[in-house]
Description:
Blueprint: H1 8-30, H2 36-44, H3 51-67, H4 80-101, E1 110-111, E2 114-115, H5 117-121, H6 123-140, H7 153-179, H8 187-212, H9 217-244, H10 247-250, H11 256-259, H12 265-290, H13 298-308
Antiparallel strand pairs: 1-2
Geranylgeranyl diphosphate (GRG) binds near residues 49, 97, 174 and 198.
Amino acid sequence: MTNQHLNFDTLSQQVISTLQADIETLLNHANLPSPLHEACHYAMTGQGKKVRPLLVASGYLTVLASSQAATIDTLPLFDDNCRRAMLAVEFLHTYSLIHDDLPCMDDDDLRRGRPTCHIKFGEATALLAGDVLQTLAFEALSADLPGFAPISNDKAASLLTLFAPRARRMVSGQMLDLNAENKQVSQPQLEAIHRDKTGALIEAAVLMGAACADANDTQYQALTSFASNVGLAFQVQDDILDVTSSTDTLGKPTGSDEGLNKSTYVKLMGVEAATDYAKSLFLAATQAIDDNFDKNSSLIDLAQWLWQRQK
Ligand code: GRG
C-alpha cells in the first residue's frame, strides 16, 4: 500500500479501529468512578462519523507523503503522537456534544442514533462526563499512557499550543451562537460564530496531524486554508441537513435549528444558495491542497466524502 494510492475506505477503517481501541485505553487509564465511566464510555462509543480524527490522520499522511520520498507501506498508518491527537479531538468533540444536548443548551434527547447522555445517565452525570472528557482530551496529548510511546515535551507543547486556543474558541463560538438566538444576524456575523464554534476544532485536527508529521510553515498555511474552508462548509452543510435530511439518517433530531430560532445559513440565504456556498467552500478547500500537495491527498478524499453527504 502506498500513501499515493491509499483508499479512503482503508484509511477510515484504520482510523476507526485504532480509535476504538485507544478510547478504551484512555478511559480505563482514567479509572473513573461509576456511573461516570459508563456515561463516558456510552458517549464515546456512539456511531459518530469520526470526522475530526479522520482529519488528523489525513493531515498527517498528506504532509508525510510530500516530505519523504519513500512510500508508506506499513500498518499502522499513523504514529503514536498522531493517535494521541485523534483521541484528543474526538474526546473534546464528544464533550461538546454532551454539553450541547443538555436541557440548559439545545435540550436534545437523541444523539448518534441513541438517547443523549443526560437522558440515559441524568444531567449531573452527563455534565461531569463532558467535563472529564475535556480533561482527558488534554491528557491524551501529554500524559504517559499504556500502549503509547512517551511523548516528548517539545511535541506535547506544540500539539497543546495548536489545540488549547482552538478548544477555547469552540466554547466562545457556542456563546456567540446562544447570543444570536432569536436575532437576525448578518452573514459575516454568522461566519464569525461558526469559524469559532465548528471551524476551530476542525482546524486543530488538521494542524495537529500536520504537526505530527513535522509540517513546515508553507504547509501549515495551505492546511489552515483547507481547514478553514472545510470547517465553514461543514457547518453550512449541517444547517442544510437540519432541514433536508431525516432523523434516522443523521441520528439526531432534524428541524432543531428552527425550533430554537437559531440563525442559520438556510435562513439567511435559502437551501439552494446555501448548497452553492457549501460547494464553493469545499472547492476552495481542495484547491488549497491541490496547489501545495500531491493530488491524491486523503484530505481531498475526505472533503469529497463530506460533500457527498449532501446528496
Ligand atoms: C462547549 C457546549 C459546548 C458546545 C460547543 C461544537 C459545539 C459547540 C456544539 C456541538 C453541536 C453542534 C451542532 C455543533 C456544530 C458542529 C457540528 C456539525 C457538530 C456535529 O459534528 P459531527 O456531525 O458529529 O461530526 P458526529 O456525531 O458524527 O461526531
